[in-house]
Amino acid sequence: MSPLRGLTGFRQRETKITIYFFLFGVSCSAEIDIYDRGTKFVPDGLFCSPCWKKRCPYDLECVQTIDLEGIYRKALEITATFK
Predict the structure, then answer these.
(1) Which of 29, 36, 40, 70 is deepest in the core (most CB within 10 A)?
(2) What is the C-alpha separation between 70 and 63, in angstroms, rounded?
(3) Is 60 a domain residue?
(4) What mean pLDDT value characterizes the chain?
(5) d(CA 70, CA 76)
(6) How many helices (H) and strands (E) does the chain have?
(7) Shortest CA distance to 67 belongs to which of 35, 45, 36?
(8) What is the predicted pLDDT for the residue at 72?
């Protein structure tokens, strides 16, 4: 006779999955390794990025040009895999 016979209510262990989105504007994305734990979003074509100035002479263009639609699309793509 199996030692588990007659036992009910077993639950499969729940696994917590965390997805990260890394937004780079002022900082240097090449210096950050995300170890395949998310997606990097880096503004393209900015001659001044990365920089570490205390005051931005370009009205924080690197932050303003972060692709919010791209982040939203990536979030939808990732969450669709869990359904």
Answers:
(1) 29
(2) 14
(3) yes
(4) 81
(5) 10
(6) 2, 2
(7) 45
(8) 93
3, part of any domain:
no
pLDDT at 12 over 70: no
Respond yes or no on whether the N-terminal peptide bond of residue 50 is cis (omega within 30° of 0).
yes
Domain total of the chain: 1
Q: Are 22 and 41 a contacting pair, CB within 8 Å?
A: yes
pLDDT tens-digit map of 54-77: 899 999 898 888 889 999 999 899
For 13-44, b where at least 16 C-beta lie within 10 A, e where not — what string? Answer: eeeeeeeeeebbbebebeeeeeeeeebebbbe
Taking a C-beta distance cutoff of 8 angstroms, is the pair 2, 25 a contact? no
Q: Which two tokens stand for residue 76?
A: 């939808």
Q: How much is the pTM?
A: 0.63
Query: Which range marks the domain in which residue 57 is found?
Result: 20-80
